[in-house]
Each structure stands twice: as structure tokens, then as C-alpha cells.
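User: My collaborator sent over this chain with a note saying "see what the structure looks like." That's all I know about it. Can you take a look?
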Amino acid sequence: METAERPEPAEETFAQVLAALKDEYGASDSEVARRIGAHVSTVNNWGHGKANPRPAAVRKIAAEFPKFTEDRLFAALGKRPPAPLSADERSEVLDVLDRLTEEQRRMLLIQARAVADSNE
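Assistant: Without extra context I'll predict from the sequence alone. Here is the result:
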């Protein structure tokens, strides 16, 4: 059985990267929260190492604060960034789903969620 590749241990924690981001951009927890559509207490918890953001939030942070790449942000979480779907890949996935029965779709979505959740 093959084992999943794990990234190297993070050289910096997500809380450290977030502190550097706020310093670089002169942003407060409130500003980060506003720009990514999160609650300020959520950002505060990330900053104190009490919680980590989900991949969607990491992508929003990288988009709003481009000096901090997805690669760096995910590395601080000890994870590799999820690969984005191209338009062709998205179309192919939907085409496959359209060909499944309702029960098959439900089962596939359960499996896909479990795999995706293992990345979080």
C-alpha cells in the first residue's frame, strides 16, 4: 500500500506567517477578516495558534495579500496546496457526475468529501 507524500515540516507556523503578513501590510485582525470574509475572532484564533484556516480561506488570504503565496501559507500548515481545476477538468468531472445514478453520486460525494477532509 502506498503512503501519501507529506510535505517537509513547516519552518514557520501559520500564526508566524499571519503575523508577518499583518506586519508587511499594516493590517489588523479586523482588516484581514474583512478582506477575506471571515469573522475577526476566527483570524484572532489563527494568530494565536488555536485554529488553522481551511483551504478556501488560505486561498482568499493569498488572493488578498499576494506577497504571501498559497505555497507559503499551506507550507506553514504542513500541507501541500490543493490543485485548482482547469475549466476542462471541471467540465469533465461534471460530465462524469451527470452519467451516474443518484445513489452512485451520493456515494462518490461521500468518498470525495472524506478524501478532501483528510487534507484539512
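A starting point for your reply to your collaborator: DSSP finds seven helices and no strands in the chain.
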